[in-house]
Each structure stands twice: as C-alpha cells, then as structure tokens.
Amino acid sequence: MPPATLQRFNSEVTVLLKPKNPAARSLLAFIRRDLRQFHLHGNISETDIFIQAYLRGFEYCSKEGAEPIRNVRAWLRQTAFNIIREESRRRQRAPQVSYDVLAENDLGRSQLTQASDEWGLDPDIVEADMRAIVTALARLSAREQRIIHLRTLQGLAWKDVQQHLETMGEPPLRLDILRKQGQRALERLRKEYHTLRPPKP
After folding, report:
1. In a domain, 151, yes or no
2. What interhelical angle do 4-16 and 123-138 show, nearest 10?
C-alpha cells in the first residue's frame, strides 16, 4: 500500500483536477504566465510543467518519513515555477537541446498538445488530458514512475538513469534490462492513458 503521505497527495491532486475546478484553471494560468515570463511558452506547454511538478511531488511523498505537503496547490505552483526557471537556465547553457516532454513516446501525441490561449484550445480538453495523465501515472509502480521521470522528463542517458536508481537504493541492473523495463513502463503508461482518453477514430 502506498504511504499515507502519498495517498493524501494523490487525493488532493485528484480533487484539484476535478472538472470545472477554478483552482486548476488558476494554477494553469500561473504556469502559463511564468512560461511567457521566461520566453518558453512557444516550446513547452503548461501541461508538461504540471506533469513534472506532480512527479516531483510523487517522488517526495514516496519517501519514508516524508512530511505531508500542507497546501498542495501552492506547492505545485512553486514547484512549477522552479521547473520553468531550471529549464530556462538549461536552455541558456545548451540551447540546442530539445525539450519535448512525452512526445518522443507518442503518448497522447494527437491529444496532448500545446495549450496556450493563442492556439485556441479548449481548456476543458487540456484539463481532461491532465487528469488522464496524472491518473495513468498514479497507476504505475514507484519504480516505473522513477524511470519515466529520469529518462523522459529529465532526458537522462540510460547510464545516468542506472546510476540515479542505484543512489536511490534500487538494485543494480544491466543497461539492456533497464531499457526493457523503461519500454514496458512507457507501454503501460500509454495503455493506461488511452483507456482514459481513447484516441479519436
């Protein structure tokens, strides 16, 4: 059973993402504003940033003895800002590096799109996509989430993923086995996502 701190975090995120919840739209508006402030709004969507913030919360709350996050919405907002600032700095150091969260895996490529006002996407669709992705991620094991976070969201090489997992106390694995585990985790994530948001015919 997941730790109580993690269950509480997931429960509060689920409430936050309920349809028509103004708190969710407010949070997305703050993220969108910060993306524009750092001149990233044409490259990264607020959904991408939200997913990364959620995964950081998941990772923190999975740790033994982790203190509960008292205000999940405020924590997600601050964490999202930190992620945007980190990405801005990373791009300044290595502007040639592409930041294409989840797209390389075809996860929701036809549905999970840039969500800025100027592109005219329905905010209800964006919120539904966010709920589906968060729900799909929550159905994965902690190890699967870590692999996806390190490989896909942080963009680490498999060798670096291997080293990070070992520092987290995971048993050492050969790189070929780790790659297969990563592929299976992404397949599971795709499957869970598409059960919640079936592709349009």
Report:
1. no
2. 160
Whole domain around residue 67: which residue ranges?
A: 4-141
* Residue with the two structure tokens 């109580």: 4
Nearest to 196 by CA among 129, 144, 103, 149: 129
- Which residues have a Cβ under 8 Å from the Cβ of 32 and sit 6 or more positions away? 41, 46, 115, 116, 117
Cα–Cα distance between 111 and 126 in angstroms, integer?
A: 9
For the record, the structure tokens of 23 come out as 């708190």
Separation between Cα atoms, residue 114 and residue 109, nearest integer Å: 10
Are 135 and 191 a contacting pair, CB within 8 Å?
Answer: no
In a domain, 168, yes or no: no
pLDDT in tens, the chain (201 residues): 567 888 888 888 888 877 777 888 888 889 989 999 998 877 787 877 888 888 888 888 877 788 889 899 999 999 999 999 998 888 777 544 333 444 344 443 333 344 334 334 466 666 677 778 788 888 888 888 888 878 876 678 899 989 988 888 888 889 999 999 988 988 888 888 888 876 655
CB-based contacts of 48, cutoff 8 Å, min separation 6: 101, 102
Residue 92 domain-assigned (yes or no):
yes
Buried/exposed code over 66-101 (b: 16+ C-beta within 10 A; e: otherwise): beebeebbebbbebbbebbeebbeebeeeeeeeeeb
What is the number of domains present in the chain? 1
Could you tell me if residue 129 is inside a domain? yes
